[in-house]
Give the backbone structure.
Amino acid sequence: MRDFTARAKRWLDNGYGACHLAERRWANDLKERLYHLQNESYLLSCWVIMPRHCHAVTRPFDGHVLEDLLGAMKGVSARHINNALDETGPLWEEESYDRIIRDEEHLWRVIQYTGRNRRLAGLQHKEQWRR
């Protein structure tokens, strides 16, 4: 299972499939979605937008469900991209890969990984892609 996960991660990082988020306008649109309800529905700690996916470290506030928040972000960004490209169908994977942060050390590792992600994938560092 670990080999498959590593291989799938390399495929994503190497840009297999549609890479809509490699275009600045779609990355900026997703960035707007990430900040839309920041400090209202969730705390957004850090994020990075990759060509095919996004990593975000968030904590929903009481009364808000992570899956609902992610679904809204993904839904709006997919609708914008599909409408502009005159396409239909899903843009995002149905299931997100989320983790519960167990302690401060785990949080630190996740934040470090998020910050290194574009460089690890061999992508150029651009400020608009990460916080």
About this structure: DSSP finds four helices and two strands in the chain. The longest helix spans residues 66-85. The chain has a mean pLDDT of 84. The two ends are 31 Å apart (CA to CA).
